[in-house]
Amino acid sequence: MPSAKKNLKIGITCYPTFGGSGVLATELGKQLAQHGHEVHIISYALPYRLKGFYSNVFFHEVQVSTYTLFKYQPYTLSLAVKMHDVALEYDLDLLHVQYAIPHATSAWIVKEMLGRDNPIKVITTLHGTDITLVGQEESFRSITRFSIEKSDGVTAVSRYLYRQTVEELKVNKEIEIIPNFVDTELFKRTDERDCTRSMIAQPDERIIMHISNMRPVKRLLDVIRVFADVTKEAKVRLVLIGDGPDRPGAHRLAEELGVSDRVVFLGAQESIASLLNCADIALQPSASESFGLSILEALSVGAPVIATRCGGPEEVVIHGECGYLSKIGDVEDMSRNCLRLLKDQKLYNEFSKKARQRAVENYGIQKITRRYEDFYRNVLGC
Questions:
Q1: What distance in Å separates the CA atoms of residue 155 and residue 135, rounded to the nearest whole number?
Q2: 231/258 Cα distance (integer angstroms)
Q3: Shared domain check, 323 and 313
Q4: What is the pLDDT of residues 31-90, one digit of tens each?
Q5: Which entry of 57, 65, 260, 308 is 20 to 30 Å from 4 by CA?
Q6: CA angle at 25 for the pair 12 and 246, rounded to the nearest 5°
Q7: Same domain, 358 and 372
């Protein structure tokens, strides 16, 4: 009879903010803990998805130096010290870091500090801007490549990101593609959950929803333009969730196009599942997207997605089945696709059903967590 696999002691380092990498890291940690593993989250602040008590999950805050000699505080070193201390105190089996820079660099320092007497494995998950933006800056290119190649295991959230890593950084390292996941029981269409629909739209209005950090890459102004076109033929309300540098410009454009009274800016929100439960269509016209977690969450609640052919969304959204994909910046095509779904209820219902099916069958949190567990054990050789 085969022996039972031992539970692991895992350190996870991530950014604690609202981005997809922080969400994945925190939700993965909680799932791993439910599977019996001991999980230690290491970051400069408590991740927003980690509020409350979770058995087998521990948080360790990085203390950043305030020494006045430093113009810019050396977070990479402070993080390495905290990761090293946690690894020693709790006898960690591995460090799973989200983002190459600076987390994989800090993890490599930890391995060097621990030495052969206290060996530890490092797994790096690549999410997107660590490769497509930061990693391609000349001042970071060599250290990004070095940190990835010094990792014991590397994963990427999409085939698109894998290709970007190999082609742009010339990384000579085997990379496992493990996509993002969604809790399909949390992100599920239900009449029981109060999504406050009556507070953000009239009963006869359909809701188009956009979720992002409102940086230029998300093309928020295209969202406004698409919506303005759709309002000419359908009774709709636009709900924008998130905040960022392009929000003021979106305000101005909505006023210029005469649709500001039908646009709701909700700012950053934690109750994403409840809000998506209100959405009829998710609109995500990004210029670049390594995966698109908000797209997957929309599919999970049965909201068809209107997105662009910009990388990750092409792997998540099946064009003509659970959503539509357009060329970047093609406002006319995106508007036409929105109206196609809003005007044909039978077609909409088919897309909604396939959207939910796509998320459940391919991206469920349990399925993807098991893939990470298998990857851990493969790297550890256990």
A1: 16
A2: 10
A3: yes
A4: 999 999 999 999 988 887 777 788 999 999 998 877 666 666 788 899 999 999 999 999
A5: 57
A6: 130
A7: no
